[in-house]
Batch of 2 targets.
Target 1
Amino acid sequence: MAHSDKQYRDAALAMLPNGPAWNRAAGSVMYSVMWAIGACMAVLENDLSQIALETRIPFADQLLPEWEADYDIPTDLTLSVEERRTKLIQKSERKAFPSESELIRLSNMVGYTIQIVQHLPFCCGDPKSQCGLIEREIGVTRSVLGIIVLSSSGILSLADYTDYIQSFLPAHVELGVTVANE
């Protein structure tokens, strides 16, 4: 939720110490300074909100060419922004689910020895779909990947490793990473 310049001004004024040197009265120099700071903070918050939206394909506008380049989609200015976003979303969701051996290889590349304990690729199309060894009802929209880290001599922290592996997975995959003996 965006804050107004008045809200920022009032918050800044409330943090000032009490006393005659810290005059909060409307029209005082301090009031004018805090009003200017509040206006700048409101603009900054709005700009940061717009940047945050640009980092998500469904809301990207100014960064569409960069997103298209990331997914090797030629920029087609004859399409509407919404059509371009739709193409990007479709391509991003087609990311293949890596095999267990590929996940182990990717982990070894960054110094992690892992054991995969659950690998259930997304399946649907029948009243009951077989995903791995588990039968699931239609409508299941998430797959699960469970990884146990057996050892690590890598350059990545566990959080960075999790982000690294997640970058190879389709958006619908839920990833769980734990360290052995913890």
Target 2
Amino acid sequence: MAQVYQFASPATESPEMSLDFDGAAVQIVFLDGAGQPVNPTGTPLLLSRGAGFSWREQFPFAADEWRFNGPCRQVSVDLAGVTGYTSYRVYVWRCLHSVDMTPTGSYTGESAAVMQTYIEMNAKRGVQYEASRRVTGLTQGQVLDSILLTGSKPLILKQRLLSYTGDGIIAEIFEAPAYTGGVADPYFNLSRINPVASGVQLLSAPTITATGVKAFADDILIGNTSNQGRGGTDMPVGHERIFKPNTAYLLRQTMLSAQDIAAYITWYSGRLDAPFLRPEL
């Protein structure tokens, strides 16, 4: 026996459901102004509340479908950052038995698990961003500062590459610096199909009055000093660093010699994928 619960925009929570069911499948149907199905930009967040009072994130099983097992009193949707629709309707199927969490065809050669990097996945979802710049004529000991101001969601610095023509660079990251000014630098989304707008700001040449708290270990890049191989190209700097939302970070680079440099960074901005609990709304 199964039971179907549903709710429609602007509601964000299902009616209370029986705890007697074990399996659950959830589908969100997005509609345009004429009531026709559309594919929105962005990824919905689905949460469930079991017998207790905490909400737990449920991750997609397939495109526009979530599956999970266990008692569930309610489900909730968070559509922050999801655009390209006029209304929506959410269907929640509950059944007495557990639902299969293995994709159809996995054991018959008709389907398979696909491995991909987080950067590739984030780019497909439109939530991976990049920026680059080149600065010439720097002197030994000169400091080059940038401010990375995160938006309303956590940010993961996925990769930072530095190139230089001299002896090297010391790269530091500080949290909550005091600064004024700065010039807004452009950055780009890795997707030209479904880019998601980001609230992140990247500022060059700010005036720093206090560096703030050292957030991560220094990255010390020492170059080749021989005439034939002087400098370093696309030297990786520590990555997978997780930044707080709504926080300023100082990206500082100190020159170990007179040189030119180039920098490239790419980051993800959005919710973290590790399961978490959220207090009842």
